[in-house]
Specification:
With 443 residues, this protein is an alpha/beta fold. The chain is built from 17 helices and 20 strands.
């Protein structure tokens, strides 16, 4: 019996374990951290062996194949030992793809992928498709394949997941953009990160489609290096050349299999970044065969994504916006660009090799205060101290929101758009966003 060992017992790891057990493998799960109770129950219900708080080498290095959680870096000691033994390492998505014939709609990008993934899923679901939501959001793809096995899956893919995908193929691949992110995981080499993102198109055939932002300079340069067999479906803010999704005289236009247009002001999502998200989603839905009527309804009724430019409350004329998902500088740029009132901006967290110069002009133009929320804010001070804008340092969300409220004036906006990962002070970006919303409520 072939032995599969799963490292990491979160959503993806526990789901992979259930699928592996169903397919008749000898399965063992190991997690260096404590496993959440709901995942322990899932593993126990399926009689799967597991351990927490340690990695027992004798139970791991006898594997025929390892399924690794995307959160575990390649330089982790156990991963190094697995590589020395030349045991194949794959992702949960790669593993799950072996056991389903469903159509795979896969979305990646440095920014916008969660909103775009959620919007595509919303449109397909609204149109009556048998569709599952998986990857970075939704439930484990492997668990859904084991227990539900939908006809379609809409999957948000991070660069970490793509790193360990080899034979998996996207029927429709969507690439929103590529800007610097996670460089700490890629030896601080941008090309390594770019290469990971471009894996979204691997194994595609002429029957598949590749949807991408035509104006991204990095993507444009990378496309010259690849012999892409899939149908190319570029989108842009403006009509030009070969783009099939664009805006023309305030009309949202898709020149897909069934041409489609609607008034831009009818779109549920506002802002330039959300225009790109809506174009990518509309093209993808059209490629998947969704009717124009259902695409229109989906684009009009979508309610947005939690922690992405989410309204957190209004207190005595001050608007509070939760953009905790903005874990890189480019995401913060789009958030600031969409602001129409003076901004008190919250920055900080675990720096991933950020270059803050991208937002300098917008900070000078729009910000009336900066609050640095992190264990080590020295890089932020080096970048922004010379701007002549009031700055405060805090190490808790309660203090952060209080400082922001002091700086803000009626008619201004407090924007949590941190540019950084959350792991220095919070469990994850969701925890950071939830604490922000709770503190706003308590003002």
């Amino acid at each position: 019996m072939k032995r599969i060992v799963i490292l990491g017992a979160g959503e993806s790891g526990a789901g992979a374990a259930v699928l592996a057990k169903k397919e008749g493998f000898d399965v063992f799960v190991s997690d260096m951290s404590m496993i959440k109770d709901k995942y322990k129950k899932l593993l126990n219900d399926h009689e799967i062996m597991w351990e927490e708080g340690q990695h027992t080498e004798s139970l791991i290095l006898n594997a025929d194949e390892i399924i690794k959680s995307p959160g575990i870096p390649d330089n982790a000691p156990m991963i190094q030992k697995v590589k020395e033994k030349q045991i194949p390492i794959i992702s949960e998505i790669e593993f799950a793809g072996r056991y389903t014939h469903a159509k795979m709609i896969c979305i990646t990008g440095s920014n916008g992928k969660t909103t775009t993934t959620s919007l595509i899923y919303h449109i397909l679901k609204h149109a009556g498709y048998d569709v599952g939501l998986a990857g970075n959001i939704g439930s484990s793809l492997a668990l859904q394949v084991a227990e539900e096995n939908h006809e379609y899956y809409v999957i948000e893919l991070s660069s970490f997941q793509l790193d360990n995908m080899y034979d998996f193929k996207a029927d429709i691949a969507v690439l929103m953009n590529i800007t610097p992110d996670h460089l700490d995981r890629y030896d601080f080499k941008m090309q390594n990160y770019v290469d990971a993102k471009m894996r979204i198109i691997q194994n595609q055939t002429p029957q598949d489609a590749f949807v991408f932002w035509n104006d991204d300079p990095i993507v444009a340069e990378e496309l010259k290096k690849y012999n892409i067999k899939a149908r190319l479906c570029p989108f842009s803010e403006f009509k030009s050349g070969s783009v099939i999704g664009y805006v023309d005289k305030d009309e949202y236009v898709i020149e897909g299999p069934t041409p489609f247009n609607m008034e831009q002001e009818e779109l549920a999502l506002r802002g330039k970044h959300n225009l790109y998200n809506s174009l990518a989603a509309g093209i993808t839905a059209d490629l998947a065969g969704v009717s124009n009527e259902k695409i229109r309804e989906g684009l009009k009724t979508f309610e947005g994504v939690e922690h992405r430019l989410e309204k957190a409350g209004r207190v005595r004329g001050v608007e509070f916006i939760n953009d905790s998902k903005a874990t890189n500088v480019n995401a913060c740029w789009y958030a600031l660009d969409s602001m129409r009132t003076p901004v008190v901006l919250i920055l900080g967290g675990k720096d991933k090799g950020n270059d803050y110069s991208e937002i300098f002009d917008l900070v000078r133009e729009k910000c009336i205060g900066l609050v640095f929320l992190g264990v080590d804010n020295s890089k932020l001070h080096a970048a922004f101290d010379g701007f002549g804008i009031p700055i405060a340092d805090v190490k808790s969300m309660k203090d952060c929101v209080n400082e922001c409220y002091k700086m803000a004036k009626p008619g201004s906006t407090v924007l949590l758009s941190p540019c950084c990962a959350s792991f220095d002070l919070f469990k994850n970006m969701e925890d950071r966003g939830e604490q922000f919303k709770e503190c706003v409520k308590n003002l």
